[in-house]
C-alpha cells in the first residue's frame, strides 16, 4: 500500500507533500531484509529525480555491518544519489569507514561510488583522486585493482593535469596481477603515452617479456600499446612492436591473432598496404570522450514503481503499462465494487482462524536498531517476534478483558476509599503498599497466563507509519557561503584507511624539535585514562626491524589503575608487535612512559591492538606516517651519487614546488625535511642542493632525497627508491611540510 501511495506522490504531489511519503518509506527500512530490498530499489530510483525528497533522512541510509551485501550496495547507491556540495564531506567520511570492511564486493562498490561522487561534484574531484591513489598501497589486491579502474575513468577527464599519477600507476605493473587492472593501466599509458615518453617504452619492454603468460584482455591492451608507441615513438619501440606482433601471430586465441594481423597491416607500411595506412594515427590516437559514471537505476523509471518488472529491471509476464490520464473524468460509479458474500466474515470468526507462520524468517529478516540519529531502538524479544501474528488476532478479545478488569479495579478502589476514614495513617500506608504489590503481581500473572507481549499491554492496537512524530526531519542547517566543501576534506580522505586518532600538541625533540605527538586514547573514551604516543626515531632494543614508539600513559582519575598491558594484538599479515612491559600500578595523577616496537613491513597500514587494565579493554590503533618507516643513513657525496645512479627510471619520482619565503634559508629547509621524514643529511658541494639519505626499517631499502633550488622560489624535489609507493607518499609529505 505504501509503495502504491509512493508512486502517486512521486508523479503527482508537490514537493511540500512528498516529504510525508518519504518518511513512511524510510520507516519501512526497519522491517525485514526482504522488505528493505524492495523499498531501497524504489528509493534508489526516486532519489535520482527528486533528491530533496530523502535528503533530511540521510543518516537513515548509513550502512550497518550486519546488513546483507545486497542491502549495503543499495544503500550505497542511495547515498551516492543524494550527494551534493553541501553533504559531500559527510558522505565521503562515511565512505572512508566502509573501505575497511571485510566484504570485498561492498568495498569495490564503495570505490566505484567515490568515483561517481568525483564525477558529479567537480570541487572534490582532486580530493577523491588523491584518496584513490593512496589506496594503491593497500595490501588487498582487489582494492588496488578496483581503484585502478576508477582512477583510469577519472583521469580521462583531465589527463594533462595528472601526468604524475599516470607515472605512478605505470610503476604498479610489477605488482598488480588482476587482469582488469593491468589492462586499465596499459590502456591509460597507451592513450596518454605523450605525457610519459620515457616510461611508456619501458612498460612495453616489461610486458613483452611476460606476454605469453598474460590473460587475453591484457594481451589485447599490450598490442594496442605497441601500436600507439610505434606511431608516436617509432625509434625506441619499433623492434619491440615487431616482437609483440610476432608473439600474438601464433597465440591460441583467434581474437588476438586477428588483432595482430589487422594492426600489422594498418601501421607497418608495405606494398600491399591500402589507403588506411595514412589514417593510422587518426584511428588509434583519436581523442576519446570521457566515460560518464551514472547510476544503474537511471533507466528503471520506464517501469512502474513498486512493480515486479521494476524490481527485476526486465518486463515480467503480465506486466501492463498504466493508461494515460483520460481527457474527461469517468463516471464515479465504476469505482464501486460489490464485495461477494463468501469473502465476508465476522470479527469472531477472524479471532478463531488459525494463524499461519510468517513468510519472512525472523533470524534473517528482523533488523536491529538503525544507526541513524532519526531512528528509535526497538526492544522486542525473540519469542514475542515469533508470536506477534497470533497476538494481533487476539487483540480485541484481550482489550475487552482488560477494560472489564479496569472497571472492577476502579470499583474496588472506591470501596477502599470509603473504608479508609476509620484507619490510621500507618495502616493506610501498609494497606496501600500491599494493594500495590498485589495489583502488580496479579497483572503480571494475568499477562503471563495470556502470553500478552509488553507492546500489547502498554501501547495502542495499531500505529500508522505516518502518525509517528519521532521521525520529523531535522531543520535544514545553513551552509556557509565562504566554503562549500570542508577545508579538512583532503585530510579526511587521505589514505581512506585512517583511524580515528587525532593530532595532539607537538613535543620537543632532542634533534630538530617539533616531533609530532599523536593521541592513542582520549581521556573521555578511556574513562579518565589518556594515552599519547610519538615515534622516538631511535633503534628499538632487541630488534632493528621494528619502529620504536614512545607511549605516555596518564591516570586522570581518582582511583588507582592496575595491570596496564597490551593484549590480543591483531596485526595484518607480516606485521609484528612487541608489547611494553606490564605496568602493575599507576597512582591517580601519575604518568608512566613506556616503549613498544612495531614492524610495519614498510607499510602505512595501521597496527591494531587492545590496551587493557584490570577492569577495562580499549581497542586502539597506531598508523605511521611514511617518514617514520625509515632510519637515517650517513654516506659520502660520491656514495650518494653512485647509489642514485642505480635508482633511476621508474624508481625516481620528481616534483616541482614553490618555496615560501620562510623556507629560503638552509636551516629552515633542513629542519622541515627532517621533521617530515627520519633522514640523515648528506654532504653536498653545491650551494643550491640539499641531499638526504635513509633506509626503510624493515627491508633496508635505500631512500635518497635531493632538493635543488633554482631561480627565485622555484625548487625541484627528487626521491629515488625501489619502494615506489613509499617514494610517492614521501614526496607528497615533504612538499606539504615545505609549503607550511
Q: Would you kindly provide a written description of the structure presented here, covering whatever features stand out?
A:
By secondary structure, the protein is α+β, with helices and mostly antiparallel strands. Among the domains are: 517-624, Immunoglobulin-like (Sandwich), CATH 2.60.40; 628-739, TATA-Binding Protein, CATH 3.30.310.10. 43% of the residues lie in helices and 14% in strands. The protein contains 27 helices and 16 strands. The strands form three sheets. A six-stranded antiparallel β-sheet has the order 1-2-3-4-8-6, with no helix packed on it. Strands 11, 12, 13, 14, 15 and 16 form a six-stranded antiparallel β-sheet that branches. A hairpin with a 4-residue loop joins strand 15 and strand 16. Helix 10 (179-191) packs parallel to helix 12 (216-232) and helix 11 runs parallel beside helix 13. The longest helix is centred in the middle third of the chain and has 26 residues, at 425-450. The radius of gyration is 35 Å and the shape is flat. The protein starts with a helix and ends with a helix.
What is shown here, in short?
Keywords: Cytoplasmic vesicle, Golgi apparatus, Membrane, Protein transport, Transport. This protein is 43% helix and 14% strand.
List the helices and strands and how they pair.
Blueprint: H1 2-12, H2 15-27, H3 33-49, H4 69-82, H5 88-98, H6 104-120, H7 125-134, H8 141-155, H9 163-170, H10 179-191, H11 199-209, H12 216-232, H13 234-249, H14 254-267, H15 280-284, H16 308-312, H17 347-352, H18 362-365, H19 382-386, H20 388-393, H21 395-419, H22 425-450, H23 454-458, H24 489-493, E1 503-507, E2 515-521, E3 529-539, E4 547-555, E5 561-567, E6 576-578, E7 583-586, E8 591-599, E9 607-612, E10 617-622, E11 630-632, H25 637-646, E12 652-658, H26 666-676, E13 680-682, E14 689-696, E15 702-709, E16 714-721, H27 724-739
Antiparallel strand pairs: 1-2, 2-3, 3-4, 4-8, 5-7, 5-9, 6-8, 9-10, 11-14, 12-16, 13-14, 14-15, 15-16
Helix pairs in contact: 1-2, 3-4, 4-6, 5-6, 6-7, 6-8, 7-8, 8-10, 9-10, 10-12, 11-12, 11-13, 12-13, 12-14, 13-14, 26-27
Membrane topology: Peripheral membrane protein
Biased composition (Basic and acidic residues): 348-359
Subcellular location: Cytoplasmic vesicle membrane; Golgi apparatus
Amino acid at each position: 500500500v505504501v509503495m502504491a501511495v509512493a508512486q502517486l506522490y512521486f508523479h503527482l504531489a508537490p514537493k511540500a507533500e512528498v516529504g510525508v511519503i518519504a518518511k513512511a518509506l524510510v520507516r519501512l527500512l526497519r522491517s525485514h531484509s526482504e522488505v528493505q530490498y524492495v523499498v531501497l530499489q524504489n528509493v534508489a530510483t526516486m532519489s535520482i529525480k527528486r533528491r530533496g525528497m530523502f535528503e533530511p533522512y540521510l543518516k537513515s541510509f548509513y550502512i550497518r555491518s550486519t546488513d546483507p551485501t545486497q542491502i549495503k550496495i543499495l544503500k550505497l547507491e542511495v547515498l551516492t544519489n543524494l550527494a551534493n556540495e553541501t553533504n559531500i564531506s559527510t558522505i565521503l567520511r562515511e565512505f572512508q569507514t566502509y573501505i575497511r570492511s571485510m566484504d570485498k564486493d561492498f568495498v569495490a562498490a564503495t570505490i566505484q561510488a567515490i568515483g561517481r561522487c568525483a564525477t558529479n561534484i567537480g570541487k572534490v574531484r582532486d580530493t577523491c583522486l588523491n584518496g584513490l591513489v593512496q589506496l594503491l598501497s593497500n595490501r588487498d589486491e582487489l582494492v588496488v585493482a578496483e581503484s585502478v579502474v576508477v582512477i583510469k575513468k577519472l583521469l580521462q577527464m583531465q589527463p594533462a593535469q595528472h601526468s604524475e599519477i599516470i607515472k605512478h600507476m605505470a610503476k604498479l605493473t610489477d605488482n598488480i596481477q588482476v587482469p582488469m587492472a593491468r589492462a586499465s593501466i596499459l590502456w591509460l599509458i597507451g592513450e596518454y603515452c605523450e605525457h610519459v615518453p620515457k616510461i611508456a617504452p619501458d612498460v612495453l619492454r616489461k610486458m613483452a617479456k611476460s606476454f605469453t603468460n598474460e590473460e587475453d584482455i591484457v594481451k589485447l591492451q599490450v598490442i594496442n600499446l605497441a601500436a600507439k608507441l610505434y606511431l608516436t615513438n617509432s625509434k625506441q619501440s619499433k623492434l619491440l612492436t615487431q616482437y609483440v606482433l610476432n608473439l600474438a601471430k601464433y597465440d591460441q586465441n583467434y581474437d588476438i591473432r586477428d588483432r595482430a594481423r589487422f594492426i600489422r597491416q594498418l601501421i607497418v607500411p608495405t606494398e600491399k598496404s591500402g589507403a588506411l595506412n595514412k589514417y593510422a594515427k587518426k584511428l588509434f590516437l583519436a581523442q576519446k570522450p570521457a566515460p560518464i559514471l551514472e547510476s544503474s537505476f537511471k533507466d528503471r523509471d520506464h517501469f512502474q514503481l513498486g512493480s515486479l518488472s521494476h524490481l527485476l529491471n526486465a518486463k515480467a509476464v503480465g506486466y501492463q503499462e498504466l493508461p494515460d490520464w483520460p481527457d474527461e473524468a469517468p463516471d464515479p460509479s465504476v469505482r464501486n465494487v460489490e464485495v461477494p458474500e463468501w469473502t465476508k466474515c465476522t470479527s469472531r470468526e477472524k479471532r478463531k482462524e488459525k494463524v499461519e507462520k510468517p513468510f519472512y524468517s525472523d533470524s534473517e529478516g528482523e533488523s536491529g536498531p538503525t544507526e541513524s540519529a532519526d531512528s528509535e531502538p526497538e526492544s522486542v524479544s525473540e519469542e514475542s517476534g515469533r508470536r506477534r501474528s497470533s497476538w494481533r488476532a487476539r487483540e480485541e478479545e484481550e482489550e475487552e478483558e482488560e477494560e472489564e478488569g479496569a472497571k472492577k479495579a476502579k470499583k474496588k478502589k472506591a470501596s477502599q476509599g470509603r473504608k479508609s476514614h476509620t484507619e490510621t495513617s500507618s495502616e493506610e500506608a501498609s494497606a496501600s503498599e500491599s494493594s500495590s504489590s498485589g495489583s502488580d503481581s496479579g497483572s503480571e500473572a494475568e499477562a503471563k497466563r495470556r502470553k500478552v507481549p509488553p507492546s500489547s499491554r502498554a501501547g495502542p492496537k495499531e500505529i500508522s507509519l505516518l502518525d509517528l512524530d519521532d521521525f520529523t526531519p531535522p531543520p535544514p542547517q545553513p551552509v556557509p557561503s565562504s566554503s562549500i566543501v570542508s577545508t579538512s576534506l583532503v585530510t579526511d580522505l587521505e589514505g581512506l584507511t585512517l583511524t580515528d586518532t587525532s593530532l595532539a600538541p607537538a613535543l620537543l625533540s632532542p634533534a630538530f624539535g617539533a616531533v609530532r605527538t599523536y593521541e592513542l586514547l582520549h581521556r573521555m573514551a578511556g574513562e579518565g585514562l589518556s594515552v599519547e604516543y610519538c615515534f622516538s626515531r631511535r633503534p628499538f632494543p632487541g630488534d632493528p626491524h621494528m619502529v620504536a614508539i614512545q607511549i605516555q600513559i596518564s591516570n586522570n582519575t581518582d582511583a588507582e589503575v592496575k595491570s596496564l598491558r597490551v593484549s590480543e594484538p591483531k596485526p595484518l599479515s607480516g606485521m609484528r608487535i612487541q608489547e611494553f612491559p606490564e605496568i602493575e600500578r599507576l597512582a591517580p595523577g601519575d604518568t608512566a612512559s613506556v616503549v613498544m616496537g612495531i614492524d610495519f613491513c614498510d607499510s602505512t597500514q595501521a597496527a591494531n591492538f587492545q590496551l587493557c587494565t584490570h577492569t577495562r579493554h580499549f581497542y586502539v590503533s597506531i598508523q605511521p606516517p611514511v617518514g617514520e618507516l625509515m632510519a637515517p643513513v650517513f654516506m659520502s657525496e660520491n656514495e650518494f651519487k653512485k647509489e642514485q645512479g642505480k635508482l633511476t627510471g621508474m624508481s625516481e619520482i620528481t616534483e616541482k614546488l614553490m618555496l615560501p619565503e620562510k623556507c629560503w634559508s638552509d636551516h629552515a629547509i633542513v629542519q622541515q625535511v627532517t621533521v617530515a621524514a627520519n633522514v640523515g643529511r648528506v654532504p653536498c658541494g653545491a650551494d643550491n642542493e640539499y641531499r638526504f639519505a635513509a633506509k626503510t626499517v624493515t627491508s633496508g631499502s635505500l631512500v635518497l632525497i635531493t632538493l635543488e633550488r633554482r631561480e627565485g622560489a622555484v625548487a625541484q624535489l627528487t626521491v629515488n627508491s625501489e619502494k615506489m609507493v613509499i617514494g610517492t607518499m614521501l614526496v607528497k609529505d615533504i612538499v606539504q611540510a615545505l609549503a607550511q
